[in-house]
Design a protein that fits this description.
six-stranded antiparallel beta sheet; elongated; 26 strands; single chain; alpha+beta; five-stranded antiparallel beta sheet; 734 residues
Length: 734
Amino acid sequence: MKDGRQYPSPEYKTLFNSIPGGVQQCLNDEYFTLIEVNQGFIDMFGFGWDEIGERFQYRFIEMIHPDDRQSVLDEVSEQLKSGEKSSQSYRVLCRDGSCKWVMDNARLISTDGEEQLLCVMMDVTETRNAREELRLSLERHRIIMDQTTDIIFEWNMLADTMIYSANWGKKFGYEPVHERILESLKLRSHIHPDDLHRFQQLIADARSGKPYSTDEFRIQDAKGNFIWCRIRATDQYDASGNPIKAVGVITDIDKEKRLIDNLKYRAERDALTGLYNREETVTQIRCHLQDRPECCGALFMIDTDNFKQVNDSQGHLFGDAVLAELASGMKRLTRGSDIVGRIGGDEFTVFLKDVPDRKLAERKAELFLDMFRHLFEDEKQNIAFSCSIGVAMYPEDGSDFQSLYHCADLALYQAKSRGKNQYVIYEPGQSVPVQQSAFSSLGAAIDSDERGTGTTGDLANYVFQILYDTKDIDQAINLILEIVGKRFDVSRAYIFENSDDGKYSYNTYEWCNAGITPEKENLQQIPYADLEGYENLFGENAIFYCRDIHALAPSQVALFERQGIRSTLQCAIRSEDESFRGFVGFDECTGTRLWTKDEIAILSLVSQLLTTFLQKKRATDRDRQLAVQLNTILDVQDAYIYAIRRDTYELLYLNHKTKELALSAKPGMPCYKAFFRKEEPCEKCPLRQGGPNEIYNPIYNVWTKVHVTPMHWGDSPALLLSCYDITEYKKMEK
């Protein structure tokens, strides 16, 4: 050995190298000068004995990470004062440039009157990393819990107990039930009565072992108000695979839900009267009849007599007020379950559910006639109104909407032809000339619609207003697809967006009409390479119109057939550089369809509006993601990084390391106050010309080397400071 020491015997060498882990023997001096290391030590750190001499001069202290050296010296000294043993963890440099965490168990020994340390070291890097990851995970969880308004819950199915995060009390204003959840649901549930059956189904799904359950319910707060919430629950299982717990999140979606309900109401209702509009009236009646109800029903076609004369003599505003009053009167004469709609300028449709016989339909028709006759008789200006009514009975006159409508329309014509101001209930065999057999105005324009949302241009304005006003573009797009889908009676309305490289397409939004199977989950990452030049299907006007999909290429036909599509109309999404970025589409699955020029025009315009706002959202999402990535990069840097406004020294940004050092520092504070607790800029400020680039902070006892980079923060000139900790090096210089 060096320094004239004797080499150990072969037996000692064998025993020394057989000790598990890294073993080293060193002097108990300020350098921990190495005397001997075993093969495990060499294997652990990668340095051979000669390399240790050449690189570290056999000083083990030099192999310890610079940030840990002083603490190791202090700990060894402190622990040896009370005994002959020392134990601590620290980092050691490795030959490949990395560091390993070791657990060092040292014992003080004396050889030839010289104090030495015999150290056995175990590699605990993996354990330390796992602990650090766990700490960071818990820290992230705490931060999320502090910042979120969501309520976390855990349901112990075996004990039937529930625990909630503190946000429950903050949200609802009372302490939740913790024990015997199933029993409490029956006795004093805070779930809205109309939603209780769905909540019970979610509970049943979780108990049956369904891995993931979600639904939306109204939960009552302490003031008696019901708040819409979305509940998501995930099951946990025992070793045998039986569900034992469910954990999940309760999210307040009240504003979101009420916004959607309001937008749906606007989409489904006639703006003037508040009744269902034409499209929604037909949809509601069709959906009811498709369920094949056992009870009878009655369809009323109600047309105001001579209403055009009122508009011509009194003006549209007066006519609108009359229609609003008539609609209000009809609602008073019907139940909430009945369907009442305005289907023309002065024409209404009423479908009465659960009508036991024709006599009740006759009595209801008489009430409608009487209401029209007397609604305005107490007015200062005597106004006389009447109406004509045609009635068809379900199921004897028809089992579907079209049949019932045709019969009620014929009856309405009979009422008009007999002198108006009366009703007629359809009788089979009524003789009506073919040219007069379609009296009612179903499908005709509504006067107020022409000044509102009924025309092509105003539908586009309505769509634009929804997109412009919304705070949640995803919800607005889904709603618009539903509105447009119902308006044009398509089977499916959707949006596909391309991957960044343009090789794949993803179905990101979808609305399906009644009876149509959703396909969104099946249409993710569709490779364009398999679709034989799909982009070329879109012409110069960015429209792909196909009346019969069987005219397409085989691979394209196969894609459409898998979805049950017969006809399609798609509008391309183009970026600013005119590259193909996806498409908005409308499918017909019930048969081939001839799209009219007007339909193509309005659907193309709506698609352009959707595309404009969607691309704006995607750009915002990318900017936000980039900001998060940049912030993450700055947070993991081993330097104190912060930005200040050039003229005021105001802090604009602090990375994680800076926040950990200066806990009281916040954006908006001047840097000299935040870091040095001064009331004016520092005399030796590195931002001044000729200022030092090495700064000592006596508050934190830290030396830093400062790099200053000019930048802009918004429109204001700013500076980015990167401060590297050189405290250890400064101590070594001394």
